[in-house]
Amino acid sequence: MGIGLSRRDNVFDSKSSITVHGREYHILDAIGQGGEATVYRCQDKKGSQHAVKMFCFSRYPPVQIRQRVDGFMKEARILQYLSGRSPHFVDFVDFEYRPKENIGYMIMELGRGNLRQFLQGMPLNEPLRRMIWQQIVNILVALESARIVHADIKPENLILVDNTLKITDLSLAFPSTAMGQAFRQPMIRGTLDYMAPEVFLHETSLESDIWSAGVILYEMTYGRPPYFGIFDRHQKMDAIARMTPISYPPLNDHYLFDLIQQCLTLDATLGVYLSMTDGLHYPRLAVFASIITTTIFICFILSALLTQKRIYLYLKGLLGTDTSMMLLLSLMSLFRQLQPIFECKYKNKKVNLYLDLSIVCDYILYDTELIVE
C-alpha cells in the first residue's frame, strides 16, 4: 500500500492510499492547499469520506522541523479536544506523526464547501446573511465556552456540513483562560483582511476572533472586507493597526449597521453577546427592554404616590419579580451556567448589567416603601 508521493512538493496522486494507526484511507483528490499543509478528500474501507490534512515537514530547514511538528501536535490535540463539544466543531477522527518520514496526517470530517464560495464580491441576501451570522455567533460562543482562541477566523475556515457551519483549521489556535484576557504572541500571524488591530501589538484574545467575525459580517453585507480598497500590504497593515476609520455605506437596516460597528471596535464583547438573543436585531431587544423597565419604574412610583394600596402592591409584586429574575440571571452568569448576554466592559472592568439592574430595582423598592409609609 504505497503512499504515492510525487517529487514536486510531496503531493499525493489520485491512486494513493495512506494508513493512520493501521486504518487505510484511499486518496480521491486534493481539495485545498495551505501554507503548511495540503488537504485531500479520502475514503475509508467502509465507504465513508473524510478530509485528510497532510503535513510534509521535510520541506523545512532542519532547525524548523521540531517547531513545525510541535505546531502539528498542538493543532491535532485542540481538534481532538473540541470534537463533539459543539455541532459547530468538526468531528475529528485520528492523527499520526511519522518521524522517519517527517510526515503528519490528520483525519477529520469532510465539508461540502466553505463560506468563501458564497462570497463572490456581492452582498448576501438578508435571510442567508442572518442564518450564517447566527451560526458564526454560535461558533464564537462555543469557542469561548471551550476556552479556545481561534486566531484565524475567515470565510475559508468556515465549512458547511449538512447546512451547519463549522470552524476548521486551528493551526493558530491556543487555549485561553478568561474572557478579555489577551495573550502575547511572538509573531504576527493570521490573514491580513481579518486581523484585529491588537494583533499587530502581538496580543490576541477572544475579542480578536469577534473582530474577525465582524469583518465577515461586513463582507456579507457590503460584498467586500473593510480595507479592501488598500492594495499595498504594508499600507493595509498600517491602516488596520492604526484603526483608520472604516467606511460604512448607508444601510436601511439600522440594527445591522449598529451590530457591524459594535463588532469592529476594540471592545466588541457587548455587541456580539447581545446579538445572540435576537439574530441581527439585538438593539430592538435592548430598546424594548429599556422602555418596558422605565415604564414599570414610573408607574410604580406614581402608584405609590397617587393610587390605592392594592394597585401599589400589585406593581410592587411585578417589580419584585423582575428584581428576583435579574438577580437570578446575574448569579447564573457569575457561576458560568449562563452565557452573560448582558455583560460588557467599562474602563477595562467587567460590568454585569443583570446585577446592576437588580440593585437599581431593590433601591426603588426600598425608596418607594419609605414614600408609602
Q: What are its keywords?
A:
14 strands, alpha+beta, 3 domains, 373 residues, disordered N terminus, Transferase(Phosphotransferase), domain 1, Phosphorylase Kinase, domain 1
What does this molecule look like?
The protein has 373 residues and is an alpha+beta fold. The protein is 42% helix and 18% strand. The protein has helices at 62-82, 126-146, 206-222, 233-241, 254-263, 269-275, 282-306, 309-334, 353-372; strands spanning 17-20, 23-33, 38-44, 49-56, 92-98, 103-108, 148-149, 158-161, 164-167, 174-175, 183-184, 203-204, 343-346, 349-352. Helix 2 runs antiparallel to helix 3, helix 3 runs antiparallel to helix 5 and helix 7 packs antiparallel against helix 8 (309-334).
Question: What is the name of the CATH topology of the largest domain?
Answer: Transferase(Phosphotransferase), domain 1
Strand order of the largest sheet: 1-2-3-4-6-5
CATH architecture of the largest domain: Orthogonal Bundle
Strand tally: 14
Strand residue content = 15-25%
Average of per-residue pLDDT values: 78
List low-confidence stretches: 1-9, 270-287, 336-351
| Biggest beta sheet attributes | 6 strands, antiparallel
What's the CATH class of the largest domain, please? Mainly Alpha
Helical fraction: 40-55%
Sum this structure up briefly.
The protein is an alpha+beta fold and 373 residues long. The chain has helices spanning 62-82, 126-146, 206-222, 233-241, 254-263, 269-275, 282-306, 309-334, 353-372, and strands at residues 17-20, 23-33, 38-44, 49-56, 92-98, 103-108, 148-149, 158-161, 164-167, 174-175, 183-184, 203-204, 343-346, 349-352.
